[in-house]
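Lay summary. Proteins are chains of building blocks that fold into shapes, and those shapes determine what they do. In this project we predict the shape from the chain. Here is one chain we studied, written as its sequence of building blocks.
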Amino acid sequence: MSHFLVEVVIDAPGLFLDKRFDYLLPRALASNAKPGVRVVVPFRSAWKAGVIWRVRSEADVSSRVRPVASVVDVEPVLTEEQLRLAEWLCERYAATLPEALSAILPGAFRVTGGLQLQPARGVDVPDDVRASSTWQFVLQKKPDDRAVAKLDSNAKAQIEAWVELGYLERVLHVSEQVQARLQSFLSATKAPAELLQAAAARETRAPRQAALLRQLAVSGELTWARKEYPRTTVQPLVEAGLVRVDERPVSRFIWPDREERPAPALTVHQARATARLAQLIQAPGAHMAVVHGVTGSGKTEVYMRAIDEVVRQGRQAVLLVPEIALTPQMVGRFYSRFGDRIAVLHSALAQGERRDEWARILRGDASIVIGARSAVFAPVRNLGLVIVDEEHEPSYKQEDAPHYDAREIAVRRAETAGALVVFGSATPSLWAIRQVEDGRATLVSLPQRANGKPLPKVEIVDMREELRTGNKSLFSERLQQELEATVRSGLQAILFLNRRGYASSTLCRACGEGVQCPHCDIHLTVHRADGGMRLVCHYCGYEQSYSDCCPACGERALRAFGIGTEQIESAIATLWPDFRVLRMDVDTTRKKGALQQIVADFEAGRADVLIGTQMIAKGLDFPRVRLVGVVAADTMLTLPDYRAHERTFQLLTQVAGRAGRADTDGVTLIQTYRPEHFAIQAAAAHDFVTFYREERNQRAFFTYPPFCELAVFLASHPAEHVARGAAMRFERELRRSGAIDYMTLLPASPSGIRRIDNLYRYQVVLKYGRWEDVGQDVTQSYRVVKERMNRLGGSCRLDVNAQRIG
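And here is the predicted shape, written in a compact code that computers can read:
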């Protein structure tokens, strides 16, 4: 007789779990056991959740193969394509299968299983046992073994005795982290004429039943409101065969009020772009396009037309946005056009909302998915289009394992489905333009703004000259004049500084020392809090009060140096106390809904000035903004990052594009101490081509992406010599492998910040042409060191296709 076996991926970390485990499938559970279904299985002495990878049949099964304990789902929560994608994630990013599946499936689908004590069925329990407090505890709490272990010795002995006597039994209890929300619906089972006839017969003796029947005769179905129609009203109608009760899953996500807006007329350039994308959508096979559109060129409308084309073909589309900051505005625009055919996936949703939206996509109730990075894994079954908006943003790279790049996932899924993938930006990354140069992507251009207005005038303000004339404030004379004129005319301004807090560091004027975090090799940042000052570490969260007394020399000469968004806010309050000011950075957007509220308030004109970090540079559309001021462009240029020039150009161009997006001519002022730098000059001239040529030449000369790929190994441990030793061991393993012939290896060295949260950090950097040439050896070397570090109480990570070093 043949037996069914299932291969299960266990939902738990650890290299030894990076494989599929065989379990016997009881025939009673076989009907729902499919790939992608969640299960609970015995694993060693515990119960673990997992996902079925494959079902197979075998004639002979070892007696050591244990049976599946519980099948959680009726239908799979992961598609076959997503399981194949998980395998690819492991190969591409040196990830484990559990890591890959946890990246794809939202945490709301987590399942736990364990044995609970409860009274045995059909057993007579003596009265004295029932009356005991320990029995009452078991009856009410149904404790697991961990809860029993916390009881006193007498209670534990009693419980074990009752188990032996058969009064208690241990039963497997499976619980989901978030349950599906079910809604009851009442449906008519007869024709309207019969319902009205039945209503008339009940008019006197059962008026509520009559009212319900009349309502169903009109609508055919309604949500069961139990206060209006209690069970005593509904049940007789069910028994009479007039009404049926159905329970269906519904989403907890609350949609805004829908304001339908007609599609605007396309500009000439938008029409050409739309037609070109439509050709690629209709062409057989997978395709890639790069949409290079200046800020305000109407890329979103082009996206909408492309999505509409795909949906009309009966296929699905995924739109990725780089930050949660973009989602409320983007969702609002798409909801007004497409209604509840869209689903939303991003980390700011409550767990229940995210679970429900995922389930809607699986059921096919949504044909358009909008979200941040993780939405690239949406369980669409008939993918026709993936759009990666603002594709240049580094937030598309996942920081935690597996360190995937959503752009690569989008390409992979498009290739698998024969779909079109679109990368859109006003400042395309060098990687995207390289795809065009190599013939892998089609370039689609939107060179003019949709409103016919010119791009905002950008002026470079040389802060060295301001200093020479005696102006030591944060704002140049020119910026002060423009800010005053803008707000007094009833328009709005944005001030950009990519550094939060009040001041970036402290410095003692007596001894030259600053205040460092005791747990990290980094200076503490000055923050304002409740009218006072605090010193905060942006890496481990350590805080202490601010004092002008230097901890190194004892002199009262400690001063705050550098600037942050809080200092700009304070300066505006001093110079223009009547200005209404909002600040958008990590500190003001921690609470759920805070970011959306800031965007809504500024959009509604309830503030004159918006101060912010890079959040405000990412695609937000504020029609009344006339002025954009970049307070200190130099802070980005000096970062120890090979992408510093590119990031500076992108952020300056993007934030400048917030000005003059409607009927108002825009003005952008860039304050800098390096006005001659090519990135600043190119941004001021809106000259992407010149910037690209210069940066491309530098990257090619020094062999940095996109002319190679980087991988960064990072070891962390409380003892510095262990972290350093792990990095050196990884380097030795690689030098002994065949992959060394295909790469440049930068030796083990301290990371950019040597210590974070009391963990010392050492790294090894790899440069190579193709991961296919080195991946197997690099992954093997990594796993050797990782296993050793796990035993030593440390950790290590391997970031493949790394976007930054250190």
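What the prediction tells us: The CA atoms of residues 511 and 553 lie 7 Å apart.
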